[in-house]
Write a structure and sequence with these properties.
The chain is of the alpha/beta class. It folds into 2 domains: 268 residues, Aldehyde Dehydrogenase, Chain A, domain 1, CATH 3.40.605.10; 185 residues, 3-Layer(aba) Sandwich (Aldehyde Dehydrogenase, Chain A, domain 2). Helices cover 39% and strands 19% of the residues. It has 16 helices and 21 strands. The strands form 5 sheets. The chain has a 7-stranded mixed sheet with strand order 13-14-15-12-11-17-18, sandwiched between helices. A 6-stranded mixed sheet has the order 8-7-6-9-10-20, with helices on both faces. Helix 9 links the parallel strand 9 and strand 10. Helix 2 packs across helix 7 and helix 4 runs parallel beside helix 6. The longest helix is centred in the N-terminal third of the chain and has 20 residues. Bound molecules: nicotinamide-adenine-dinucleotide (NAD).
Length: 497
C-alpha cells in the first residue's frame, strides 16, 4: 500500500504509527500516512535551526526569486497536483485547481516581499537622533492545517512565513497529506534551501508536541473551532505567537429586490460546491420576507434537483463525495437532527448512491426550510451539502441573525440597493462580507480572517496581516551627536523635548 512519510531535510525516520487515508470516491483505504511524535519534530526543528539563519540573511530579492520559481513549477505541475488533491479530498478537479490557484496567489504576493519588508524611518526624531524599524523573522514557525484546502491553506502560511525569512514546518491534515509533501518537493526544486520548508505528519500527539516545543516561536492553525481554541490557549500558554482560525456558519441574506436567478446560481455553488466542505460556504440562506422566501424556494428546488454528483475526476460533476465515511455519517446525522427539531425537509440528500461507486462517501444536496435560531442544527457547523433556510421578517432581523451567531467568518448580502448593502456591511458582526459575492474570500494582498468563534488571536492570514504575524518589529533609536555637550540629565527619562 502507498505510504506517505514526513518530508524532512536529510530524510524521514521510519514510522511506527500510521493513519489510514480513505478513498472518498470508492470507500476503503487507499494509502497510509506516517503519524509522527516529538522525536520526529525534534529532527525537523534541528534542521530548521541549522538552515534558518542563512536563509534570513539571504537578501529578500533572492528569497522572492524562489517564490517566482515555485509559482512556475506549480503551474507546470497543476494537473498532477489537482489529480492528487482530488483523489484524497474528493473535490472535483476544477475545484482542486481553484484550491491550488488561490494558494499560488499568496505566492504571487510573496514575490513582492522585498517591498513589504521595508521598514519605517524618522530622521531627526530629536537632536541628532534618527529612529528606524525593521521586520525580522520569528525563527521557526509552524502551520497546522485542515483537510479541506490542502494546497491553499499551507501556502497562506508557508509562503509568507518563508519569504520573510523563517524556517517553516507544516503539519497538514492526516486525511489528505500527499499534496503538502509535493509542495515541499517543489519548493526544494525552486531553490529553497533544505530545512526551510518541511512537513511533519501526525495527529493530536504531533500537534501537542508542536505546541510545547520551546524552539517554535509561532503557530498558525486552521481547523474546527474547539481545536482552534485549544491550540490557541496551549500555544499562548507556552509563550508562542498563535493565530487559530476555526469553523463557520455563513449566512446569505436575500433582499426582496435581489436578482433571484443570479442568487440561485450563486447559492447552489456556494452551498453545495466541494460538498459544502468550505469554511466560506453559504449553508444558511436568509430571505427577507415570506414573499421573497417563496419566490426563492420555487427557483431553488429545480436548481438543486439539477445538480450532478460524481466522482472527483468526473468533469461533468458539480461536486463529489465528502472526505470520509465518518464525516458522511456526521452530515447525515445533522440532517436527521434538523428534521427532528421541526424544520421542513424539502429535499433529502441521504441515501444517495452513485452507480459503480456504491461505497463512495456521497451525500446528496439537502434543503431545509423554516429553520429557526433555537435549533442545534442551526447553531452548529454541519460542513456538508446542506442548505438551511431561515426566514427573516425584515432587514433588521437579517442583520441580527449572522451578527448574533456564535461564528463570524463570512456573510453575503444579495441586493440591488446600494444603501442597504452599505448599511449591512458596516453593521454586521462578521469578519468577511460579500455584496452580491457569495464566497467573499479576500484576495491574497488583503487578508483572511473571521470574528467570534471563527478565529482566536488577533492577526489574519496573508497580506500585510500575514507579514505581521510571521515577523517581529525591531525599532532602533540612533544618536550621532556633533561633539558638543548636550547638557541633559542622564537620570531623567529621555524626551525629545
Ligand atoms: P480539524 O479541526 O479536525 O483538524 C485541523 C487540524 O487539527 C488537523 O491538522 C488535525 O490533524 C488537527 N487535529 C485534529 N484533532 C486534533 C486534536 N484533538 N488535537 C489537536 N489537533 C488536532 O478540522 P478539519 O476537519 O480538518 O477541517 C474542517 C474544519 O476547518 C471546519 O470546521 C472548517 O470550518 C474549518 N476551516 C476553517 C477555515 C478558516 O479559515 N476559518 C478554513 C478552512 C477550514
Amino acid at each position: 500500500m502507498r505510504q506517505i512519510d514526513h518530508f524532512l531535510a536529510g530524510g524521514s525516520p521510519a514510522a511506527s504509527r500510521f493513519g489510514d487515508i480513505m478513498d472518498p470516491n470508492n470507500g476503503g483505504v487507499q494509502a497510509q500516512v506516517a503519524l509522527g511524535d516529538r522525536a520526529v519534530l525534534d529532527k525537523a526543528v534541528a534542521a530548521a535551526q541549522a538552515a534558518q539563519p542563512a536563509w534570513a540573511a539571504t537578501n529578500p530579492q533572492r528569497r522572492a526569486r524562489v517564490m517566482f520559481n515555485f509559482k512556475a513549477l506549480v503551474e507546470k505541475h497543476m494537473d498532477e497536483l489537482a489529480e492528487m488533491l482530488s483523489r484524497e479530498h474528493g473535490k472535483v478537479l476544477a475545484d482542486s485547481k481553484g484550491d491550488i490557484q488561490r494558494g499560488l496567489e499568496v505566492v504571487e504576493f510573496c514575490c513582492g516581499i522585498p517591498h513589504v519588508l521595508k521598514g519605517e524611518y524618522t530622521q531627526g526624531a530629536g537632536p541628532g537622533i534618527d529612529v528606524y524599524s525593521m521586520r525580522q523573522p520569528i525563527g521557526i514557525g509552524v502551520g497546522i492545517t485542515p483537510f479541506n484546502f490542502p494546497a491553499m491553506i499551507p501556502l497562506w502560511m508557508g509562503a509568507v512565513a518563508t519569504s520573510v525569512g523563517n524556517a517553516f514546518i507544516l503539519k497538514p491534515s492526516e486525511r489528505d497529506p500527499s499534496v503538502p509533501n509535493r509542495l515541499a518537493e517543489l519548493f526544494l526544486e525552486a531553490g529553497m534551501p533544505e530545512g526551510i520548508f518541511q512537513v511533519v505528519h501526525g495527529d493530536k500527539e504531533m500537534v501537542d508536541a508542536i505546541l510545547d516545543h520551546p524552539a517554535i516561536g509561532a503557530v498558525s492553525f486552521v481547523g474546527s473551532s474547539d481545536i482552534a481554541h485549544y491550540v490557541y490557549n496551549r500555544g499562548v500558554a507556552a509563550g508562542k505567537r498563535v493565530q487559530a482560525m476555526g469553523g463557520a456558519k455563513n449566512h446569505g441574506i436575500v433582499m426582496p429586490d435581489a436578482d433571484l436567478d443570479q442568487v440561485v446560481n450563486d447559492l447552489t455553488g456556494a452551498a453545495f460546491g466541494s460538498a459544502g466542505e468550505r469554511c466560506m460556504a453559504l449553508p444558511v440562506v436568509v430571505p427577507v420576507g415570506d414573499e421573497t422566501a417563496e419566490r426563492l424556494k420555487a427557483k431553488l428546488i429545480p436548481a438543486i434537483h439539477a445538480l450532478k454528483l460524481g466522482i472527483s475526476t468526473d468533469p461533468e460533476a458539480h461536486y463529489g463525495p465528502v472526505v470520509t465515511a465518518q464525516h458522511k455519517a456526521n452530515v447525515e446525522g445533522w440532517i436527521q437532527k434538523c428534521a427532528d427539531e421541526g424544520a421542513e425537509l424539502v429535499i433529502d440528500g441521504r441515501g444517495f448512491t452513485l452507480q459503480g461507486h456504491e461505497d463512495g462517501y456521497f451525500v446528496g444536496p439537502t434543503l431545509f426550510d423554516h429553520v429557526t435560531t433555537d435549533m442545534e442544527s442551526y447553531k452548529e457547523e454541519i460542513f456538508g451539502p446542506v442548505l438551511q433556510m431561515v426566514r427573516a421578517k425584515d432587514f433588521e432581523e437579517a442583520v441580527a441573525l449572522p451578527s448574533k451567531h456564535q461564528y463570524g467568518n463570512g456573510v453575503a448580502i444579495f441586493t440591488r440597493n446600494g444603501h442597504a448593502a452599505r448599511e449591512f456591511a458596516a453593521r454586521v458582526n462578521v469578519g468577511m462580507v460579500g455584496i452580491n459575492v457569495p464566497i467573499p474570500v479576500p484576495v491574497a494582498y488583503h487578508s483572511f480572517g473571521g470574528w467570534k468563534r471563527s478565529a482566536f488571536g488577533d492577526t489574519n492570514q496573508h497580506g500585510m496581516e500575514g507579514v505581521k504575524f510571521w515577523t517581529k518589529v525591531k525599532t532602533i533609536t540612533a544618536r550621532w551627536p556633533d561633539g558638543s555637550p548636550d547638557g541633559g540629565n542622564a537620570f531623567v527619562i529621555p524626551t525629545m523635548g
